[in-house]
Amino acid sequence: MHTEKELPNGLKLIIAPLHNTKAITVLILVGSGSRYESNHERGIAHFLEHMFFKGGKKFDSPKKVAETIDSVGGDFNAFTGKEYAGYYVKCASEKKKVAFDVLSDMLLSTKLDISDINRERGVIIEELNMYEDTPMYQIGWDFERLLYGDTPMGRDQIGLPQTINAFSQKDFQTYRKDLYTGDNTVIIVSGDISHEESEKLTKQYFTFPDQKKVRSVEPTKIPSPSHKVHIRTKKTEQAHLVIGYPAASFGHKYEFATRLLSIILGGNMSSRMFLNVREAKGLCYSVSTSSDHYSDSGIISTHAGVDLSRVSEAISAIVGEYQKMRELGPTTEEVEKAKSYLKGKLILRMEDSEELASFLGVQMILKNKLSDLEEVFTKIENTTEEEISQIAKTYLLPENCRLAAIGPFQGREEEFQNIILQ
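^ that's the sequence the OP posted. Answer follows.
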């Protein structure tokens, strides 16, 4: 059973013991990310994530950080999204103090040395180039830019070459001071550890400066552009597509109806997209539907890798599945199978300390409240066929549809737009 506490410095602590493991995960989530950036700061949250690995006072170089974790056979990594950044160490529970020691030194004592910053610029530029050369990564960013427009929610986390090369040491210090505060941080300790020891070690290692978060975000607005198609013209051997719609936000009363809808449409190998678009028509090798849920907006979308010669047919087939769902809704059998599938996947996730930490931490960082697995199961079971039908009618309207494509499709925007508006 998990517990949650708020420490005197505003830091939120979630403790989730697991008794079937000898591992522990310490995960730190900070309300940061690309949504908290101004236009001239694009990419600074992600860049700052890199800088934390350059070392602090005790582990004063990337080599020492890596050697310390490697010496206990642990895993460590970090990630930056639109609304939060995360840092974690997973290791044997008998080495738990190493996880606390390394993470606290990284986050609270990082040097942000200008020579490290200058060296890391090239690393991040190469990371940007890698993403731009990998259509499966780039297509998702293109779609969100199309959906959200030129707003923080529509900007990718990696940034632009001109901003990456322009950041000063003071820029990093300011961004960190504004957001890396106790009241804007959640620490999740999960695995083979007691409640008492988790709280003791957290208080011992994580003493944040006495300051408050000073940045906020504007509410998300979905623009209604006349052009609902974005094409990135590129010579490829396969067309890469994302077709999708705005949907329910994280914690919305229809969040789980949206999750179930995405499973029915394309969440597994018995879904409509897989059986009807891939198997029956042979239009693509990969096709999947998923939902993304942010604090005040959401997306339901289908990603596909498509034969270049049949791209129009594939777009029509994918949109057709959305249209059928909007008009007829799901079957009772589909809803029950989707519920069972979602619950099964959640059970598998909760066996791992890292997944459990993420499950709880994301809830707290986005909505400041927690539901345990049984409460989530209740929400899933209480979702009705009628609710799924209703959100399909509400969200999956032709005028809400957006299409991002990567491939040799210059000049075909109007053709593709006519298909998705059918």
